[in-house]
Structures are given as C-alpha cells and as structure tokens.
Amino acid sequence: MRVTTAAVLFDADDWIVLDKPAGLLTTPRAKGEDSLVGVAQRLRPKSTHWHPLSRLDAAVTGVVLFALSDWAIATAAAAKEAGEYQRWYAGLAGAAVEGDEGEWSWRIEDDPKDRTRRRCGEGATSVEALTRWTKLGAGERATALGFVPVTGRTHQIRVHAAKAGASLLGDVAYGGAKRLTSPTGSVLAVPRVMLHARAVKVPGRPSVVTSPWPSDLAALQSALVPTMAAWPP
Questions:
Q1: What is the CATH number of the domain that holds 78?
Q2: What would the pLDDT profile of 103-123 be if each residue is shown by its tens digit?
Q3: Given CA atoms 10, 83, 51, 160 in this order, what sign does their dihedral have?
Q4: Does the CA dihedral 130-114-192-11 come out positive or negative?
Q5: Which domain holds residue 38?
C-alpha cells in the first residue's frame, strides 16, 4: 500500500478540507487501497465519519471537503438541497470559447460502449446536469475557464466541456490533447486532465477555502494563457 498525504486547508469542528494531489483516488476501490478518505482517517482518527462531499477523479486536483459527523453530513445535505453548497473549479480547454460566461445544461448518461465514461444524451439512464462557466482568459491555443457545477454528476465538467467543443487539455477520454504547441513554437506535454477544484465554502461558515494552483496547471496556463482573471471572483 502506498501511503500518501495531502495538505490540510481547513480543519475545525466537524469539517476538514484536504488538497487532493493528482493520481490519488478520493475513495478506495478496494480494501487497503490508499485514498484521500484514508488520509482524512489518519488525520482525524477520532471522527465518526469521513464523508467526502465531492469525489474528484484521480487525475483532478484540489479541494475536497469532508463531513466528519452525522451533524456535518446532515448540514451538508441541507446546504445542497437549498442550493447553498458552493464550489469553484478551473481548467484549461484546448479550444476557443465564444462568449464570456454561460451555462451548459445537457443531460448526462452512461456510455453504453464504455462503463467508465459518460456522455451527453437523453436515454433511460440520463440525469439532469447543470454547469455554469466563466471565461477567465484566452490565448491563441487555449482558454482558461472557471466552472461552478450546480449538480454533481460523474465527469460532469469534463463531459459538458467536451460537448461544448472545449475538451479539457489532457482529457484523452473526452477528446482532450495530450500535447500541443505553444505560441512560441515549443511542444508542451500535458501530464493529466487540466482540471482543478479551486475552492469550496464550508456550510454555515462565511469563509471560502481555496487551493493553490498546482504547478503543472500553473506552468501550462503561464505558457498558453498568460493573463487570467482571479477565480473565484
């Protein structure tokens, strides 16, 4: 078992926010497999629960808020039901995106050809999905986007971005490029899906907990989209 750690961004009462690194699962697929849940358990061993309020894909980095008690789980559920659970993501798309902001509301369903993937569609397994997006900056070969997922479907941001013709860099499963040429002519490798969970608001608290930009995303952003707006705004 590979034991991993994650930076603690917030730790108070029945909540803890961890900064998930790339390559680490949020929840284990098998007993004994290391995961961010395991990190939370090691950090808060006396808690009664270690419930992640979002399940980031292994390649995705950033904030994950854990509810550590029955009260916290109920509080989080009430916040979600009231539309008050707020989180912000950011990513790099390998295409131009028209407009400054908008919404993607395509329904999402299982991909019958690949059970690990999702797609936009209206089939029997489809569910409502809503992603709000904001353009943070644009370069010749990439666009920086901020995302607010109103719903929390599997691969939601990735699937919606692909449907919009703005697949995230590195997201090979949904049409993203693994390498591209910078405006200066250098070839840039994309090591993973360029999506980062930037910030989350802890229910019942005024402050927003923010994760620093990971070095790989920051380097690509600097090369491809040198000027980018603050996010969250």
A1: 3.30.2350.10
A2: 999 999 999 999 899 999 999
A3: negative
A4: positive
A5: 7-224
